[in-house]
Design brief:
Structural class: alpha/beta
Strand content: 15-25%
Order of helices and strands: HHHHEEHHEEEEE
Shape: globular
Largest sheet: 5 strands, mixed
Strand order of the largest sheet: 3-4-5-6-7
CATH class of the largest domain: Mainly Alpha
Distance between the termini: 24 Å
Number of strands: 7
Helix content: 40-55%
Number of helices: 6
CATH superfamily of the largest domain: Winged helix-like DNA-binding domain superfamily/Winged helix DNA-binding domain
Length: about 190
């Protein structure tokens, strides 16, 4: 974990500022932003509030998140838009993978966040992943609700083409798919 933390610091304080032609102080702001995100993932961003906390412009926060996403530190879950709106509003920000969750957490990470992060991380490799109004994710007009072994159908009961993704199960049935199976997508 110590080595991973060193790589994260190097990425935030040196690599991104050099790549994006930013100053050293901006690297420190990137570190603060990642700390804010890591403490409340999945993070529902309020860029104006974050800008105030970091003493930066609101537009800069968009840029910071963009560069952190390019660097593989975060993933941004957007609304599904059409036309120019395909760049949709960011609904949630996740750390890029479970290793980052464990490296940056100051206490035991929340298992629901880990599940959603694993699913999002694996599915975005070959798919456009968007937020769902009623569940967690939409991919190619298919709705996915991610949960643990006891997750029920309540959230998706009236939705067509919807699936429950469960952790802690070995095999799927009907519209229930084990979380581990999505690792085969990679």
């Amino acid at each position: 974990m110590h080595r991973l933390k060193q790589v994260i610091i190097q990425t935030l304080e040196t690599d991104i500022p050099i790549y994006a032609n930013m100053n050293v102080a901006t690297g420190k702001k990137l570190g603060k932003l990642l700390k804010i995100i890591s403490q409340s993932v999945p993070f529902k961003p309020n860029f104006t509030k974050i800008a105030g906390m970091l003493e930066a412009s609101r537009n800069s926060i968009d840029d910071y998140c963009y560069y952190m996403e390019l660097a593989g530190l975060i993933m941004q879950l957007r609304d599904m838009g059409e036309g120019i709106g395909q760049l949709g509003k960011v609904d949630k920000v996740y750390l890029d993978n479970a290793n980052l969750i464990f490296a940056l957490s100051e206490q035991q990470p929340e298992v629901g966040n880990i599940r959603e992060t694993v699913f999002f991380n694996q599915m975005r490799v070959k798919n456009n992943v968007f937020r769902s109004e009623r569940a967690d994710f939409i991919i190619n007009n298919i709705t996915f609700e991610v949960g643990g072994k006891s997750k029920n159908q309540e959230q998706i009961k009236d939705l067509k083409n919807a699936y429950i993704v469960k952790d802690d199960i070995e095999y799927g049935y009907q519209n229930v798919i084990p979380l581990w199976a999505f690792g085969l997508n990679y």
